[in-house]
C-alpha cells in the first residue's frame, strides 16, 4: 500500500482527526492525519523573506506547498531579534521580494516597521498561510521522500504569560524540501576568557532594542559588522558611554557616495570594469568621504571590498554615521579582548577598562547542521551550501537565502527554485505526485 492510501486509511479511524485543520490544510493541498502525511507539493522550512518568496513564486506556478515556521509569526528575525532604529541597509529596489515592489511612498531605505508591513501585505497578496509553531527538528531523505519531523507547540496565556500547554511531534513526507531557515538562524556567541566572572550584564545584539535603558552607563559593543556599528551609534545617540571592539580588519564604506548608493554604484561599475579596478575606485572615494579608518583603529583588509566579498562572502560594512561619532570621540575603539574581569575587560594591548554592559555583536549562524541529516550539499561545519550561491542539491533538496547576497539573493534563489519545482510538477502532473 502506498503511503497516501495508508494515511487516508488511518485518518478514517482516527478520533483525533480535526476537520478544521484538514479544511485549512486541504486549501494548500496538505493531506492531514495524526500518524504522518505525504504531501503532494514541497515542504518549505522557515517563513522569513526567503520562505515567503518561494511560497509566492510556487503559488503563481500553481504548485501547492506547506510552509513550516517555528515561531507564531513570519519574519521572526525582523520582528523579534532586531533593534528599533533598524532600516534596510540597501536601497529598497535591491530588497524587494519577487512579484511585488515596495509601495511607491516608501523611503529609499525603509524602516523595520515598513519592511514588516510590506511582508504582511505580501502574505495577503499571495494567500500564504504558514503552519506556525512548527519547529522542524529533523529532516532526512529515505530514498523516496524527505521525512521531515516537526514539533508542534500549543501555547496559551496563563496568568498573563504565554505558556506551552502541549506539544506533539509529527512526520511529514514530501518529494521536495526547501531549506529557508536563514543565514542568521541562531546568534553566534564566541568563547571569551573569563566571561563567567564578569558581574555586569552580557547580551547578544539580537536582544538589543534601543539605547534608552542604558543612559549614563558604560557599554562595550563587541564586533564591528553592520550590527555592531549601528548598535554603537544608537547607544551613543542615547548618551551612553559607548566603546566598540574591533578585532579584525574590516572594510567600512559610506552608505552613499555623492548621493548615490555605494552598493548600486559598485554593481554598476562591476558591469564594465574588473573587480580590482572597482575596488580601487571605491576605496579612493571612501577615503575622500570617511578619511583613513585605520587611524581610527579600524584597519582595512589587504584585499579590496568587492573582491573580498567575491572570494570569502564577507560583506563590507555600510556606515550610517558611526565613523563621525568615532572621530568626535563619542565612541571609543578598542582592540580584541584578552579576558573579562569582574567589572570590566582587559584588551590585548594590556589596557583595562570598566563596563556595566557588554553587547556581543558577534553575528549569527545557520542552524541547518542541527536538524538536516544531509552533508553532501550542505556543509556540516557552517550549515551553508558547500558551493557558494548553489541553490539546488540532489533528490529535491533546495537552499533559499544562503548565497550571502541579502534580500537580492533571496529573490534570485526563490525564482529559480519555484521554476525548477514548477517544471517538475507540470512534467509529472498532480495526480501522479499523489500516487508516487
Ligand atoms: C540586523 C540585520 C539587518 C539586515 N538588513 C538587510 C538589508 O537591509 N538588506 C538585505 O538585503 N539584507 C539584510 N539582512 C540580511 C538578510 O537579507 C536577512 O537576514 C533576511 O531576513 C534573510 O531572510 P531569510 O528568510 O533567508 O532568513 P530569516 O529572516 O532568518 O528567516 C528564517 C525563518 O526560518 C525560521 N526557522 C529557522 N529554523 C527553523 C526550524 N528549524 N523550523 C522552522 N522554522 C525555522 C525562523 O524562525 C525564521 O522565521 C539583514 C540581516 C540582519 C541580521
Describe this structure in words.
The protein has 436 residues and is of the alpha/beta class. Helices cover 31% and strands 22% of the residues. It has 13 helices and 22 strands. The chain has a five-stranded parallel β-sheet with strand order 9-20-10-11-16. Strands 1-6-5-4 form a four-stranded mixed β-sheet. Helix 3 (49-60) packs parallel to helix 12 and helix 7 (262-272) runs antiparallel to helix 8. The model is unreliable at 1-5, 10-29 and 31-35 (pLDDT under 50). Residues 45-51, 68-71, 75-78, 82, 86, 88-90, 95, 135-136, 180-182, 184-185, 227, 367, 371, 401, 406-408, 410 line the site of flavin-adenine dinucleotide (FAD).
How are the SSEs placed, and which strands pair?
Elements: H1 3-12, H2 19-27, E1 37-38, E2 43-45, H3 49-60, E3 66-68, H4 76-80, H5 112-125, E4 134-141, E5 146-158, E6 161-174, E7 177-179, E8 186-187, E9 201-204, E10 218-222, H6 226-237, E11 241-245, E12 252-254, E13 256-257, E14 260-261, H7 262-272, H8 275-290, H9 305-312, E15 317-319, H10 322-327, E16 331-334, E17 337-340, E18 344-347, E19 352-354, E20 357-360, E21 364-365, H11 368-371, E22 397-399, H12 406-428, H13 430-435
Parallel strand pairs: 1-6, 2-3, 2-7, 7-22, 9-20, 10-11, 10-20, 11-16, 12-15
Antiparallel strand pairs: 4-5, 5-6, 8-21, 13-14, 17-18, 18-19
Helix pairs in contact: 3-12, 7-8
Bound molecules: flavin-adenine dinucleotide.
GO molecular function: flavin adenine dinucleotide binding; indole-3-pyruvate monooxygenase activity; N,N-dimethylaniline monooxygenase activity; NADP binding
Cofactor: FAD
Keywords: FAD, Flavoprotein, Monooxygenase, NADP, Oxidoreductase, Pyruvate
Amino acid at each position: 500500500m502506498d503511503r497516501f492510501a495508508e494515511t487516508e486509511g488511518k485518518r478514517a479511524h482516527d478520533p483525533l482527526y480535526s476537520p478544521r485543520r484538514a479544511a485549512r490544510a486541504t486549501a494548500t493541498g496538505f493531506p492531514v492525519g495524526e500518524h504522518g502525511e505525504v504531501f503532494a507539493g514541497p515542504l518549505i522550512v522557515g517563513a522569513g523573506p526567503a520562505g515567503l518568496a518561494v511560497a509566492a513564486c510556487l503559488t503563481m506556478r500553481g504548485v501547492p506547498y506547506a510552509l513550516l515556521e517555528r515561531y507564531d509569526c513570519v519574519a521572526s528575525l525582523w520582528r523579534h531579534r532586531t533593534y528599533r532604529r533598524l532600516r534596510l541597509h540597501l536601497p529598497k529596489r535591491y530588497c524587494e521580494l519577487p512579484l511585488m515592489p515596495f509601495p511607491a511612498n516608501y523611503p529609499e531605505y525603509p524602516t523595520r516597521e515598513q519592511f514588516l508591513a510590506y511582508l504582511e501585505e505580501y502574505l495577503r497578496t499571495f494567500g500564504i498561510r504558514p503552519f506556525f509553531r512548527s519547529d522542524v527538528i529533523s529532516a532526512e531523505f529515505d530514498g523516496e521522500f524527505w521525512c521531515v519531523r516537526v514539533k508542534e507547540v500549543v501555547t496559551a496565556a496563563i496568568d498573563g504569560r504565554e505558556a506551552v500547554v502541549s506539544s506533539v511531534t509529527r512526520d511529514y513526507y514530501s518529494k521536495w524540501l526547501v531549506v529557508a531557515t536563514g543565514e542568521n538562524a541562531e546568534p553566534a556567541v564566541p568563547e571569551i576568557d573569563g566571561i563567567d566572572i564578569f558581574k555586569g550584564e552580557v547580551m547578544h545584539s539580537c536582544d538589543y532594542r534601543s539605547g534608552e535603558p542604558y543612559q549614563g552607563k558604560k557599554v562595550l559593543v563587541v564586533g564591528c559588522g553592520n550590527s555592531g556599528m549601528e548598535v554603537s551609534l544608537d547607544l551613543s545617540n542615547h548618551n551612553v558611554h559607548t566603546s566598540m571592539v574591533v578585532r579584525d580588519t574590516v572594510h567600512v564604506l559610506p552608505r552613499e557616495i555623492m548621493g548615490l548608493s555605494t552598493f548600486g554604484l559598485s554593481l554598476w561599475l562591476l558591469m564594465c570594469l574588473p573587480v580590482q579596478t572597482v575596488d580601487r575606485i571605491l576605496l579612493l572615494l571612501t577615503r575622500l568621504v570617511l578619511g583613513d579608518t585605520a587611524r581610527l583603529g579600524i584597519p582595512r583588509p589587504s584585499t579590496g571590498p568587492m573582491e573580498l566579498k567575491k572570494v570569502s562572502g564577507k560583506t563590507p560594512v555600510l556606515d550610517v554615521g558611526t565613523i563621525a561619532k568615532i572621530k568626535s570621540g563619542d565612541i571609543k575603539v578598542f582592540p580584541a579582548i584578552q579576558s573579562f574581569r569582574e567589572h570590566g575587560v582587559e584588551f590585548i594591548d594590556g589596557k583595562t577598562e570598566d563596563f556595566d554592559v557588554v553587547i556581543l555583536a558577534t553575528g549569527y549562524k545557520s542552524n541547518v547542521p542541527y536538524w538536516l541529516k544531509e552533508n553532501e550539499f550542505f556543509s556540516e561545519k557552517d550549515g551553508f551550501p558547500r558551493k557558494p550561491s548553489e541553490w539546488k542539491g540532489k533528490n529535491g533538496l533546495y537552499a533559499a537565502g544562503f548565497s550571502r547576497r541579502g534580500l537580492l539573493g533571496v529573490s534570485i534563489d526563490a525564482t529559480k527554485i519555484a521554476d525548477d519545482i514548477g517544471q517538475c510538477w507540470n512534467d509529472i502532473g498532480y495526480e501522479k505526485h499523489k500516487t508516487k
